[in-house]
Amino acid sequence: xxxxxxxxxxxxxxxxxxxxxxxxxxxxxxxxxxxxxxxxxxxxxxxxxxxxxxxxxxxxxxxxxxxxxxxxxxxxxxxxxxxxxxxxxxxxxxxxxxxxxxxxxxxxxxxxxxxxxxxxxxxxxxxxxxxxxxxxxxxxxxxxxxxxxxxxxxxxxxxxxxxxxxxxxxxxxxxxxxxxxxxxxxxxxxxxxxxxxxxxxxxxxxxxxxxxxxxxxxxxxxxxxxxxxxxxxxxxxxxxxxxxxxxxxxxxxxxxxxxxxxxxxxxx
Length: 268
Hints:
alpha/beta, Nitrilase/N-carbamoyl-D-aminoacid amidohydrolase, 6-stranded mixed sheet, 6 helices
């Protein structure tokens, strides 16, 4: 099955309504130009803040799944008849916990919330301490049967944990979606692409990685096929990135390189 996917590689601010307005414009543009089945936005798309932002300002821009940001995105998904995947921030369920969640929401083409996922592995690396402001999720993503194939999902730093994508593959995932806010830095581009290619090759899956391109973030969104070949790749600035995914390619590659089926877990 062939599926049209658009990645919205965009910058954003700490103001949810501004980012929503930008999303609406790019959704209309994607519909006009590509008629996609699925449109993916970055991690933390609803709001994003510099590390030194006062926590009160950060928490003031969180919303529940029933809030205006998700509600408006649901209306856009229904209006344009496409699945939407995007990052947002919920308040902690514990009022005493002054952190927010790093949540990914998946909507179907009728505007229904199919599922949501809270990032489970915090970016405590390269001098960052994401766990200081982000509340860890307590469950991994469960792959979803969709009209386009079985979709798995993980977020940004979680690409560094091969166990996550392997579990998704074991549960039948054919397409792995990776919303991300990959920070710039020395060798970070090399690591970004190396890790994405590895997750695609070792699992025989497409990997769809949509990155922020705000100042300090990499951009370079990419769609990689199950052989680790780039289907489509972006530069560093704002753009819509179109790709066509074909699940027949997944089947073809898995027959050609059946390494998943040749595992010997009794030895590991």
